[in-house]
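Design review, sub-item: ligand-bound model
Attendees: FS, YL, KQ
YL presented the inputs for the uridine-5'-diphosphate complex:
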Amino acid sequence: VFCRAYIPGVRERTLVAVKPDGVQRRLVGQIIQRFETRGFKLVGLKMLQASEDLLAQHYASLNRKPFYPSLLRYMNSGPVVAMVWEGHNVVKSTRMLVGDTNPAEAKPGTIRGDFSIHISRNIIHASDSVEVAQAEIALWFRRSELMEWECCDHGSVYQL
Ligand code: UDP
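KQ shared the predicted structure:
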């Protein structure tokens, strides 16, 4: 309220989801830790079994791809952990933290590069543009599930 207005784009948000394989492999804590230690702010978090309808909307742009049916089966195979992270340049920074879609191409140090091997089980989703992030957040979260709060270290993460 008092300081963050000085940093353009500091309220940018992105949707991240730990996919069913990431949940099964108990990677949720380590994934959240990477975003927290980077300095991003968690504003939404829930565990859910994504419905086929939600997944069809989420992956609508891929519905003609050959891997689409197996992608939906995979994403529907167990609970996912959906979250919304906020901060300056968070959409692009998150894509870099997450790494290449194909783990074989993902650099060590990225989430996919450190924790996964094959494109069909790449453990995490992240929005790929600011516009897509807005649509995905609206699809996965109600407004009342998103928290407005001040991080007490805001002035140490961003210039005041
Ligand atoms: N995917 C797959 N095979 C492919 C390409 C993609 O199984 O050849 C899956 C993979 O889980 C990927 C998701 O489909 O994360 C969505 O693909 P997209 O190209 O949107 O990549 P992302 O934005 O997730 O990096």
